[in-house]
Amino acid sequence: MLHVPRWRVIAVFAAIVWSILFALPNVLPASVKANWPAFLPSKGVNLGLDLRGGSHLMLEVEAGALVKERMEQVSEELARELSKAKPRIAYTGRGVAEEAARLSLVDAAQLQRALDVAAKLDSPIPLPSGKSGLAVTSTPDGLIELKLSKDARAALLRQAVQQSIEVVRRRIDELGTSEVTIVRQGADRIVVQAPGENDPEVLKRRIGKTAKLTFHLLDNSVSPQEAASGRAPPGSLSLPQPGRPDEPFVVVKARALLSGDDLTRANASFDQRTGEPAVAFQFNQRGAREFGRITAQNVRKRFAIVLDGSVITAPNINEPILGGSGQISGSFDVEGAEELAALLRAGALPAPLKVIEQRTVGAGLGQDAIDSGAKAGMIAGVAVLIFMVLAYGGFGVVACLGLVLNGAMVIAAMSMIGATLTLPGIAGLILTIAMAVDANVLIFERMREERDNGRGVALAIDGGFGRAIVTILDANITTLGAAVILFIFGVGPVRGFAWTLSLGVFTSVFTAVLVTQVLLANWYRTARPKKLPI
Known about the structure:
Helix content: 40-55%
Shape: elongated
CATH class of the largest domain: Mainly Alpha
Strand order of the largest sheet: 7-8-2-18
Number of domains: 3
Strand content: 15-25%
CATH topology of the largest domain: Multidrug efflux transporter AcrB transmembrane fold
Number of strands: 19
Number of helices: 15
CATH architecture of the largest domain: Up-down Bundle
CATH superfamily of the largest domain: Multidrug efflux transporter AcrB transmembrane domain
Largest sheet: 4 strands, antiparallel
Mean pLDDT: 82
């Protein structure tokens, strides 16, 4: 007697119900899904850029600007430590040139002391034990130069790319754009694909801004005329102030007193005095404490709020601001205030991003791909059905029923986890059709061998499933291994293919072994055949 454990019957029934529930939203019209009960699944498969159309950007991290900023920090730290030395080590000409921090000692006789101080500086980026992040060189006349080591530069760039990916993701999420693909490519590039976003300029405007917010005191030793001419003394910067024809340039202290890294909230609002759009912000505990100290020590002085090298506003500090909150007002419109608030919430990029490739994919091309893929899938399905019926008769029909459930399970799984279907993914789906049938062919051929060896119908069916399972697992495990390798080392479309192929491996084994076995067991109990009809 052919016996199928009850748990297998329950598993097949649950798989059928689950597949129908999660795959059905993909074929229902939008009007029906709008009235769909809230407790039922309503998400369909996300379509990739090549199927839905949208924008493609390739961005490059400007390594030169990244290294220069980090070396400016090293230069400031070295100058601070030399000033703290006992006795003080005097220097001049501090600055950064050709990705190196440089300064000259006033007294070359203090060179060795200065080199000892430089050797104790912390690495600009953590490195494995025993490796130095800074290479220090000097000349007999007292010139000291510090550069990033090769390992430190590579680690800094790698960290910046990873950080940039997270910031870009948060910024795009603020746009409400879903199903965005953001992947690293090479050492310093990032690929952004936004299906459904047909205007890449929107992405560029949001992504391309560094959004580095800093707070500086003004340098009152410089006249407005000198500021307008761009002349600034050492330790100060002349920065533009857009929207202020009466004061187009402002000279600020180069050292930032506070940065936007400590912001916890930024929202578009309106200035209560003027009614103009503004951005309200809130610092975290550390930032609030520092902001309160700065404003308390500089009452009746002006300080500048600088965003990406431009002064947004430069108000007077009338009284200490101790609550950790403030407001940025300037020549904003409502859209500009909302965009700035979104950028501040997402955080600053560690370095500028340069757009080196931009493409827009039309939705019509994607629809053609979907239609072609659907046609290929139908042709493959019909061809497999004809072959299986001719080769195995009614058993071939049973295998094709399992094949239909296999396709529904793949679509249901992709809908449930929010996976993105690409054109190579469609190829992976079609490939799973052949893989699923391959398992049934192995099972049916083994049944024939059992029948030819004189076994009865029940024993032949049972032996076919029991003895073919090892071969089926071997074949599918090797396929799954190849798919995992493609997913780990591939990017973009290659990953889409690997993803659908991996899902197909699991579902094809399930349908070929469990579903087919349950259907044939029910057929046997109902028909009670005297011989195996294969």
